[in-house]
Amino acid sequence: MKKTIKIMILLACLFGISFPFELGALDKKAVKAITSQGKQTISDAAFRKIFRDYLCQHLGKEKSDVLVSRLKVLGNKPVPPGEINLRLFQKEKRRLAGYVKLVVIISVNGVVKNKVRLSGWVDVFESVVCARRNLKKREIVEEDDLYLARKNISHLSSKVLTDTGKAVGLMAKHAIKKDTCIKEWMLGKPLIVERGDMVTILAESGNLRVTVPGRALVKGHMGELIRVQNAMSKKVIYARIIDNSTVSVDF
Length: 251
Description:
Elements: H1 2-15, E1 21-25, H2 44-59, E2 66-74, E3 84-89, E4 98-108, E5 111-131, E6 146-152, E7 171-172, E8 187-188, E9 191-193, E10 198-205, E11 208-216, E12 220-221, E13 225-230, E14 236-243, E15 246-250
Parallel strand pairs: 10-15
Antiparallel strand pairs: 1-3, 2-5, 3-4, 4-5, 5-6, 7-8, 9-12, 10-11, 11-13, 13-14, 14-15
């Protein structure tokens, strides 16, 4: 038993694996007839099933949301008689959509006997956030501007939004066409100060409060540190945006 554990740890180090998937004893229906040499092989159908099961478990998806095609099984050799156990690993920590590769460690009666490589194209379907209408550059996104649609995210960026709440209140960084799937990079915090805006520069320390007029030299959003020119001294300082007409400096 200790020897088996050591072998599994060594394999984990070699493969750089991080997400093991323990199947336990393999169903007898998945094992092909014993060969004349007294060995047994695992059917490709069994590998297809465990490949899909792994994806569903780690993606948190129903089987109807995960489609596997062009599956390749490499290194599937006969193993000695006995109870077969399988462990699946993702060799490289990548997104489980599109082209996916997994490694299967095959043990018989607790002893590692073979390693099989699985690869295939994975289509994952999920509800994503889309634009209900054309959105203009710098327009603030509202709930009514969005809707959810079931899409094949294998062909989309991993940054696509799946929660409308993460888009509402943000600003479109550029024009977004109707029915476009919204990605994180398309939105940003709304600009509340524009370059050239007159602002109040506020400095506070205890009960002391000092304000002077100033002018924003760059645009910015709430909480952002921007360059501001003191309208009286003409000195350029950095101040943090408090609201659309006030910036604050350390005193």
